[in-house]
Hints:
- With 117 residues, the chain is α/β, with parallel strands linked by helices.
- It has a single domain (2-111), classed as Rossmann fold (3-Layer(aba) Sandwich).
- Helices cover 43% and strands 20% of the residues.
- The protein has helices at residues 10-20, 32-41, 58-68, 81-90, 104-111, and strands at residues 2-6, 25-29, 46-49, 52-53, 56-57, 74-76, 94-95.
- A five-stranded parallel β-sheet has the order 2-1-3-6-7, with helices on both faces. It has a two-stranded antiparallel ribbon with strand order 4-5.
Amino acid sequence: MNILYLENHAVFAEQVTRQFLGAHRVTVVPSLAEARAAFAAGSFDLVLSDYDLDDGKGEAFVRECRALRPRLPIIAASSHEAGNAALVAAGASATCSKMQFDRIQQVIAGLDHETEG
C-alpha cells in the first residue's frame, strides 16, 4: 500500500513508519504545502493526516483530498480528540490517535473494503 503521511514531527513519523507501517511504502511530508505537492505528483492508496501542522491545520488537506478523490481512505492521526474530530468532520474515514498507533494496522484493515471508484 502506498501511504501519504502528513506529520510535522519527524522523529515520531520515523518511529511510526518503522514500527507500524514497515510493510507499506510511506511518504512522510511535514507540511500542508509538501502534502499538496506529493498528492498531486503521486498515487496514494491511503492518507494519514495529523491535525496541528506548522503551516496550518490538517483538516484543510483532508477536505482537498476528499474533493479530488471522494473514496480515498483517510485516517485522522492527531494526538488529541478535538483534532481527530475536526479531521473527521472534514472528511476523514477513521481515526487512530497517536497514543494508540499500535492499532494502525487494525484501522487500515477496517478500511480495506473501501476502494477507488
